[in-house]
UniProtKB/TrEMBL annotation:
It comes from Marivirga tractuosa (strain ATCC 23168 / DSM 4126 / NBRC 15989 / NCIMB 1408 / VKM B-1430 / H-43) (Microscilla tractuosa). The keyword Zinc applies. Transmembrane segments: none annotated. This is Metallo-beta-lactamase family protein. SMART domains: Lactamase_B. Keywords: Hydrolase, Metal-binding, Zinc. Pfam families: Lactamase_B. Its cofactor is Zn(2+).
Length: 214
């Protein structure tokens, strides 16, 4: 069974996820924790639940999703997984972090690259890696079709989509990623977004003003 705990961190109101199974093996996805109290909130949950954090994952590497990378890597001694095409995005963060108010940002480097079609395991849970560029050049998402769960970063939101005016973004590419890849999955799939509330693919297929197909 997939267990997902959501945290909302940093001024961008970014969703950080802890994903784990009944074995208590866990991954932290897109750690946006920057302030000490945010880091404490994350660590306290992991301690309370008795989780064994085994990996760190970035769906993409915009600043709001990577602020806690170095902290998580150091605290839990885990490797970072991401898509290779987002490496320039990650490496650019130190050049502008102070301008956004994050003067104490600590950079991190990936240990493993994921690609389209990989089957990535968190504990005993298997996720299919989907390559979904448009918001970021190396954006990936994680689909478990059996349990109808998709962890999607900033690709698709409740009634919206990821912005495409940042470096490496492209509107047409993002719409194609959503309509031609993501929307092929069942309507009942629950989408855990990088910002805001959860939604479902079925709802967005019908009512999303940017990418609906029905």
């Amino acid at each position: 069974m997939i267990n997902i705990k959501q945290f909302v961190f940093n001024p961008f109101m970014e969703n950080t996820y802890v994903v784990y199974d009944d074995s208590k093996n866990a991954a932290i996805i897109d750690p946006g924790c920057y302030e000490g109290y945010e880091q404490d909130e994350l660590v306290n949950f992991i301690k309370t639940e008795g989780l064994n954090v085994q990996q760190l994952i970035n769906t993409h590497c915009h600043i709001d999703h990577v602020l806690g990378n170095a902290f998580v890597k150091d605290k839990f001694g885990v490797d970072l997984y991401m898509h290779e095409k987002d490496l320039p995005i990650l490496e650019a963060v130190p050049t502008y972090s102070a301008a956004y108010g994050f003067a104490n940002y600590q950079p991190s480097q990936p240990d493993h690259f994921l690609k389209e079609g990989d089957i990535h395991k968190i504990g005993n849970i298997e996720f299919e890696v989907l390559f979904l560029p448009g918001h970021a050049p190396g954006h990936i998402g994680f689909m478990n079709e059996k349990e109808k769960v998709f962890i999607g970063g900033d690709v698709l939101f409740d009634g919206s989509i990821g912005r495409t005016d940042l470096p490496g973004g492209d509107h047409d590419t993002l719409i194609s990623s959503i309509q031609n890849k993501l929307f092929k999955y069942h309507d009942d799939v629950k989408v855990y977004c990088g910002h805001g509330p959860e939604t479902t693919l079925g709802k967005e297929k019908v009512s999303n003003p940017f990418c609906a197909i029905k």
